[in-house]
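Internal tracking record. Fields below are filled automatically when a chain is submitted to the structure queue. Please do not edit lines marked as system-generated. If the sequence contains nonstandard residues, flag them in the REMARKS field before resubmitting.
Queue: standard
Priority: normal
Entity type: single polypeptide chain
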Amino acid sequence: MPFLILVLFLVVLIGFVIGFIFKMGYGSKIHTSITFNEPEKWKKSIFGGVVTYSHPTDLNTFIQFIPESEKEENFIIDNWKETIKIDSENCDKLIVVKINNFTINNLQASEYISECKIGRKILMTRYVTIVKADKFALFTLATTKKEYDKNNAIFNKLLESIVWK
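SYSTEM-GENERATED OUTPUT FOLLOWS
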């Protein structure tokens, strides 16, 4: 139970931090020109400009989508320093698994994958930033290490279906 409370706290904390970073206000509606296939049977909620899809049976698993925001002057697609700092402050042990640049549906993208050990559990998080012209959007998968491959396959299908008009 303490692990679940910590995970829920991290979800809310990440939502607030990202909301401030992206200057997105805290309403229940979003405006976006990005479409994608939502994960089937996952519960959708919107808070602070962040769309969260909660796994239907695993409370430790969710996917988040933060709609497009303006790139600031010094924007760097693979600058994950602040995210790593926030993650490391909330983990007993943080391992950066991968930082990678790639292309998806003709859009420039970057990913950061980490393992966060909290007590005896390991939470896997995959952040993907996608860029188009002067805007960017962020997609996140958080799940347990045990369920990562299965949930990452769902996340990959979502990413592959992205259309940015």
